[in-house]
């Protein structure tokens, strides 16, 4: 839960050359509202994400960041408004939901690997059953992604035998095996020790460098500065401020943002 | 300027100490005995007292066991041979062994059939029990129920063959229509299977002697065979039903949920023996007159319902123990409900539930002896009825009930050992 901007967590230098934002829309959220019972968690959310964007969402605990990105792949149901992901409108139709979920990868705070399957099986499961990829091909694919996150030698171990950082990188590889068009990250590093944070962030940076559309809920402000093209600040279920990282960090407009930044950056 | 003690400040180890064994009194049986049996005067006292108790029990039991009589025609013959020595009359087991195993009216010349079915049970269950075996062997498991039915009940082979054909064609029909929705496919499968079975009954009636074994009616089944049969069938049926009930109980559709909860709570609230009486007597009133609904089938239905309610609750515990993140990860990858359950949720929930399921299975297996109360002659029914009531063996309680206990113990202990092996094998979380 540490909210750091320390050099030790600062990732490697970032090559921004391939990070290009197109003007095709990846996600569009219009006037979205969500309630938990009588509690109004998300209020009038409007957000358009273009292909190739790297968006960092931050805000105090309980502000609805997780809820927002979980609505995008229908892990949570929204009650009002419209969400369109990659041309498919989210409705209660299960076919649409499954289609969106297979196009959108998600990485959780607590990894959520399947403990009864090996690392390789974790990665090949969805391609085999959802995409109907032949097993052999799915395995080759998975090995490629495991190499990319630098743990091919652990392929036949079980998640319980890996460190937290390794598990989170497997979780990223598992999502990538579905060749998603969009990746969602919900505080992927906040359950990790500092050294492991770096290895996970490095993986995420590589992904960004390849032009992946990403929305990350994170308190890693170093990552936000280096990788994001847009930072969104949420409070009480609303988007309070959004801007390019330099402007956002150096000249925050709203008082709420200033207070939040002063708290997490410690000056 | 120095703020540390001169001697303790710097230290470098130059030679490393090699591993050496612990002192003799810290090793092996000596250490174990000293720590566990004689660590203080109270433990020593307990050890000595227990040794004495074990000794006096065994000094009574072992001679009784080893000087027992194995060959005699009746209890009085036994007494003559023993001439006042207090020893077991195991001759009853030798003489009535087949009755204990098969009941008293199963045709003697057909004893090989249940025996073969029993041996095949191990062969055909192995692919399910040991996932290391080639998956193709599961075909054997599928064929087993039909083969076992034919072996036990006899009659023409048309019956099990058409039953099998119905299942296979029903499955094919399900596969062909499943894209139009689960409910449609299920109906299609049931209709196709139903037609095949209906034709099968007609055909079997027309050619009752086509490749036929001597038919044995249900009321002639008995002995330990009946317990094994009820136990195996009911455990293997109640597991899938229990899973469905547990999932149904979690369903978002109120009708399914309410139906499952009502079923589970009702069955759990009723003693098994009541259900068996219902099967025996009451069910006959509800069925159209003239239908001859097999008693064993009725009992199987009741015991299965009973056990599946319990297993459903055990599995519900397993489902509840899974973190929500597992469901979410499965959803987020785009798996549909069936896939998520089959590939992610149930394997883990069932693994957690193994001890509970085995508990139910072992309990159920022993409860099959309750059928002796509704005048079926399982092993206990045989002992209580025909054997103890006979003039020859009236009064041989210990030997008979001891043998029955031993039979059950062997089976239950095997199940328990298997489940522990399975749990170890499935332990992949390395906590
Ligand atoms: N299932 C739920 N039922 C009721 N209220 C919930 C539920 N999940 C979350 N909430 C509430 O909704 C609000 C937003 O939760 P959310 O998890 O989106 O916050 P967050 O911004 O991700 O916080 P954090 O930084 O602590 O993860 C919180 O006040 C939380 O208590
Ligand atoms: Mg959160």
Automatic annotation (TrEMBL), chain B:
Alphabetical list of InterPro entries matching this protein: AA_ABC_transptr_permease_3TM, ArtM/GltK/GlnP/TcyL/YhdX-like, MetI-like, MetI-like_sf
Keyword Zinc-finger applies: no
Transmembrane segments: 41-66, 110-130, 137-153, 159-178, 185-204, 224-247, 259-283, 295-315, 370-389, 395-415
Entry keyword annotation includes Thylakoid: no
Domain ABC transmembrane type-1: 224-419
Pfam family, one: BPD_transp_1
Keyword list, A-Z: Cell membrane, Membrane, Transmembrane, Transmembrane helix, Transport
One GO molecular-function entry: transmembrane transporter activity
PANTHER family for the chain: INNER MEMBRANE AMINO-ACID ABC TRANSPORTER PERMEASE PROTEIN YHDY (PTHR30614:SF41), MEMBRANE COMPONENT OF AMINO ACID ABC TRANSPORTER (PTHR30614)
Entry's family note: Belongs to the binding-protein-dependent transport system permease family. HisMQ subfamily.
Protein name as annotated: Amino acid ABC transporter permease
